[in-house]
Amino acid sequence: MGMKETEARGQKAGTKNPRLSVNIAGLKLKNPVMTASGTFGYGEEYSEFVDLNKLGAIVVKGLSITPRMGNPAPRIIETPAGMLNAIGLQNIGITTFIKEKLPFLRQFKTPVIVNFFGDTVNEYVQAAEKLSAADGVHGLEMNISCPNKQAGWRVFGTDPKIMSEVIRDVRKATNLPLIVKLSPNVTDISLMARVAEESGADSVSLINTITAMSVDIKKRKPILANITGGLSGPAIKPVAVRMVWEVYKAVKIPVIGMGGIMTANDALEFLITGARAVAVGTANFVNPMATLEIIQGIERYLIEEGFSDINDIIGSLKV
Amino acid sequence: MIQAGDTYDPLLKRPFSIFRQEDNTLQFLYRIRGKGTLCLSNVKKGDTLDLIGPLGNGYPIPKGDFVAVAGGIGIASLYALIEQHKNRAHAFYGARNKDELLMLNEVSKFSKKICITTDDGSAGKQGLITTPLKVFLRNNHLPVYTCGSMPMLKTIFNIIKDTELKCYASLEENMACGIGACLGCVVKVRSEKLEVRSKKSGVRSQDKKNLTVYKRICKEGPVFDLKDIAWE
Q1: CATH code at A182?
Q2: Theoretical Cys-Cys bridge with A36: which of A30, A281, A309, B83, CB 3.0 to 4.6 Å?
Q3: What confidence tens digit (pLDDT) does each residue in A209-238 have?
């Protein structure tokens, strides 16, 4: 849509109830605010604070075919305007998730997107098949930021060739909307996004955490037991916005933006830059009601700026 | 979990034990140790802070006399127990020096007996609190309630591991959410005893010879049975 047209529509609309719903790969979200995987548990943990029906989508903690114990402690450390985590993909496994967690999530009218991963292509395929057969899973998000056991522990998401292979195989295994979560730990993220698109992804989400490290100078030891961890929080937001911009220009599939979103204004930066939806992560830890406040803030912005439809601001960046 | 500052640095809320409750107020006792507690110390009367709580599981209520072992600021976690069960606590209170023995007068007043040690000998006996504790527990079979450093807890574990004594320890760890979502604050727990509980929320290890699981300190804890912890 041309910039002039958007502005003209925005100015005359001035509605009290702007449309907030967006479509992601065939999934209709009532608003563009989702939860970021790994920061919202399996939904239940936050249900005391948040009416889960109000969310655009719930993205649950990453799951694998077999349960994972995770890394030793310390697993997290705060850094300036951010935090490092090395949880080590601890999870209850897909079977237990389907049996014990999914029934709770089924009572809500909010789409459930399951983040999943594997050590091998085969584990990804098995996970996708199993999740696709479960009642109450509406979409899949592939975490490709983990190492491939069969390819010398090279990370799936940083090598275009092995990334393409795993996405193609998962694509064949599921009819659910397939979102590929991109790693920011690459030189050219737009290339990775194009590879994901060509390999069959319906959408890309970005960014995952940025690999980082903190040192205890007294002990002269890394603070995290895992040595390195993933940086999240407000510190990474400008990097994330830049990457969303690069990816938005490079692909036709919808982009889901995340990385350090704390407020509605942060979310709006991503939406204006081209993200069709956003995910709130670390902010959930700081304020368990962050998602709801962000949804309200986005609505307020649309009213104040005279937009009747969220889609009119998505990708409306003037450059 | 208490908000420490009003900027993004520090970003996360900080976990604290409730120190005391009095006339509709909650009181927290802390030592300035890092960025978060330093920010908290600048909070002025009348300021507002976000707080989420109470969270997790506290100590079981003692049925009779008990032993309270506090290492330094660990007293913040045990104080209410001592105050609310007057003349029931055999208190063992250790710290680096005299100045770090906070609330010492009150602890003495409300305890049945108190034993003090400091690293530098500036109050009580010089040495570790676990030394007199070991002697005391030989002849007194009372449940132990404790909060302090991991080395102290491990020493207590070694004292009680071959006995019938119960020991409840409140653990500390870096936390992000405090409500069991981030899986950031974990402790390795032996799972034979916890098979049933682990089904619901924990993750079982694949290694069958040495079954251990990571438990969330914020949710399944912060108080654990010291004998359940899988000491390395």
Answers
A1: 3.20.20.70
A2: A281
A3: 999 999 999 999 999 999 999 999 999 999
Question: Which chain A residues touch B181 with a CB distance below 8 Å?
Answer: 39-41, 45-46, 61, 284-285
Q: What is the ipTM of this complex?
A: 0.91
Q: Does A214 touch chain B (CB under 8 A)?
A: no
Count the helix, strand and coil residues of chain A and give each as a percent rounded to the nearest 5: 40, 20, 40
B214 vs A70, A74, A235: nearest CB: A70
Helix (H) or strand (E) holding A168: helix A160-173
Domain containing residue A254: 3-71+89-211+231-312
Q: Give the domains, in start order, of chain B with CATH numbers.
A: 1-54 (no CATH), 66-170 (3.40.50.80), 186-228 (no CATH)
Please confirm, yes or no, whether A146 is among the known catalytic residues. Answer: yes
Tokens of A123: 């584990």
List Cβ neighbours of A283 (8 Å cut-off, separation of 6 or more).
Answer: A261, A262, A263, A290, A291, A294
CA closest to B4 among chain A residues: A286
Q: Considering CB atoms only, which of B52, B175, B203 is closest to A288?
A: B52
Domain count, chain A: 1
Looking at the complex, does the CB of residue B143 fall below 8 Å from at least one CB of chain A? no
